Amino acid sequence: MRQVQGTFFTGYVTILIKGNYPELFFQECTKKGITVWNIRKIDQDVCEGNVRLKDIKHLRTIIRGTHYKLNFTNKKGYPFIFNRFIKKRPLLVAIFLSVLLALFLSNILWKVEITGVPKDIEEKIVKQLDEYGIHRGAWIFSLDQPNTIQQKLVEDVPELLWVGVDRRGTTYSLEGVEKLIVKEEEKHGPRNLIATKKGIIKKMYVAKGLPIVQVNDYVEPGDLLVSGQIGTTDQEEESEEEKKERNFDLVAAEGEITAETWYEVKVTSPLEYSYEELSGNKETKYYIQIGEFKFPIWGFGDPSYEQIHYDTKENSINFLKWELPIKIVDTVLSEKVYYKGKRTKEEAIQTGIEQAKSELLLELGKDAKILSEKVLHERMEHGKVKMNIIFTVEENIARVQPIK
Amino acid sequence: MKKFRQRVQSLLINSFALPSDVILELPRITVIGQIHVYIENHQGLVTYSDTELKLKVNKGYVQIKGNSFVLKMMLPEEILLEGTITDIKFLSN
C-alpha cells in the first residue's frame, strides 16, 4: 500500500471506464507504470478506479486508439482543495488584509503608562513625551530606544530623579522616581568640626559653635576647627575644679572653613597626539534583518569614506504579542577623520597643566577653586613630557565629628 | 539445454535456499484470512468482475472466486484483492 500513501497530498481522481472488458484498460495502465487502486467493477462494461493526478496525461495517450470511454467522476486531494480556495479571491484578499492590519496595529503604540510620580509631574512627563513623539497612536519604529528616552527624560524633566522606560509590546510603561528636595533641617547631635586636610585657614564662617583656630593658622588633618562645647570660656581661668563640674552647653557646630591646600600631581603629556572626529558626512542604510541575514532595502553601495563610524539601530516588528524574527535595521555611517598633531614642549606642558587642573577639579568638587599652579619638575622621556605640578587650592576642609 | 537449466534451478533452490518464486518465475500468492489476496509475479489480468479474478501466470492461470471484489492496488506485477474469497484455483493452459 506504500504506493498509495500520500496521494491525498498529491491529489487523485476517480475515473470511470466504459467499454468491453474495462478491466483490461487498467491492466494496460499498470503495464505503463501507472498505479491504479480501488478498482471496482460496477457493471459488465463499467469499471472505476483511482489514479494519481500527475498520471492523467499518460492516461490520455493510452486511451487514444482504444474503444474505451473515459469519465472523471471524482476529484480528491489537497491540490483541488487548494485550487478551490484560491478561486475564492475575496476571502484571500480579506485574509491578507487582516494579517496586514494585525501587523500594522501591533506596531502602533497603544498606551503610555506612568507610575510612581504625582499627577503634576506625570503631566509634565506626558508633555515631554509628546514632544519626543511618544503618544498614543505613534508608530513604534519612529521612536527612540527606551534607554535613550530614559536619558532624555531625566535631562528634560528636572523633577525626576530617575525614570525607567520599558516597552512591552504596544505599551510603554514608565516608572518614575521623584526628586525630593530634602532640606537639611534635621536635628543634629552635638558635634565638632575637624579638618580633613592640612592647610592654612583663609576664611572662616562659623554659624554655630566655638572657633578654635584663626585665620592664617596652619592645621593638620584631624585638628579641631570649631568646637561644639560652648559657654565655658569666660570662667575658664577661675578654677579647674569648677570647670569639670560644670555642665557644658553642647551644640552642633556648623560652619564653613575655607583653607588653602596643596596638591602635587604627576602628569604625562605626549608631544605627538592623535584624536578622531566625525566630519559630519553621513549616510543612512536600511536593512531588513531575518535572523542573521541582512537584506538591504535602501542605501546601496558603500560611501567612499576612509574611516567609518557605524551607528546601528534595530527595530523589531511585532505581530500581536510576538516579536517577529524580522527586524528593520538602520545604520548610520559617519565619516571618521583621524587627526594627528605635534606640539612643542611648551604647548605640551600647557596642555598637561590644563588636563591636571580639570582632573583635580573633578576630584575635589565644584566648591574648590584653584589659586595657582607651579611646575616643580619636568623631564622629557620617550617623546613625552613628564611633570610634577603643585596646585594651590582653596576649599572647604571642615568635616563633622560627633561628640560622645 | 532445458534439462540443464532445470537442474541448475533446483540446485539453487535446494543448496542456496533461494526463494523458489524468484528462480522459477512462479506467482507468490499471499492470502490473509478470507479477505485479502496478494498476488505477486503474475503476467497480466485476464478477467475481473465483482465475483471473479483471473490472472495469467507462468504456465497457466490463477482463478480466484468470491464476492464483492475490489482491486485495492494494481502495480505492474502485483495485485492486492479485497473481498470475500471462497476459492483459489490453478488452471493449466
TrEMBL record, chain B:
NCBIfam families: spore_yqfC (TIGR02856). This is Sporulation protein YqfC.
